[in-house]
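Subject: sequence -> structure tokens, single chain

Hey, anyone have a minute? Need the predicted structure for the following. Not urgent.
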Amino acid sequence: MPEDARLAALATEPNARVMVLVDGQNLYKTCRELFGHPLCHPHLLAEHLAGPRTQNRIACRFYTGRPNQNVPGERIKVRNLDRRLDGMRGVGVTVVTRPLRYHWDWGHKEKLPRPHRWATPQTVTLKPWQRPQEKGIDLAIALDVIEFVLADKLDVAIVVSLDRDLSEIPKALRNLRPLVNRAVRLEAAVPVEANLRYPKTVDGFDYTHQITPGIFELVRDDTNYAAPDREWSAPAVPKSLSNRGGKR
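Reply:
Had a minute. Here:
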């Protein structure tokens, strides 16, 4: 079978081995901006993106930076994040973390409107603070895709991110084609606003899934991970879309 035909077949083949790799912070920020809520269940999103390719277990990997609890103001963030990551692990998600890096910067606590050409000047008070910065997540995702392709552990890799640096993955795989004697389908998935006129695409990928507001509602996570310790009990995480009455 020609490679193009094989790649097309992998779009729906039930036996295809699908791995979904989620850039957690990128997804968090984009969903908050577009949908007004930042959290979703990555394993439910992975199930939706896999579609009919569910004969084999769908592998889902979640990548995120982890705050340093020794930095002032970060201890509660670490607790809240760990609660969420524990829930993911409980339903089979592989969690990959990298420590956040911090550098001193000037910042403000005032909430500013979104900038645009008609925005009015604002007055804020600047204070020094330790700004967290996520490093190495896109590299970790890219290296994992390459490793799992070379180790023959997947047929379809779906990368959930708007990070344009990840467009280097298809280039790398093309260079490695002599070592990979089979078709590997690369897909991306990106959140999009309602009624988008033209679908978004990620360069080099065979297909780009559109995570619309309707799809987001199917996989949305409304758990209050910031609840006080005395009120916190780990919630029952839905194991599949069918548990929520959703459809792939």
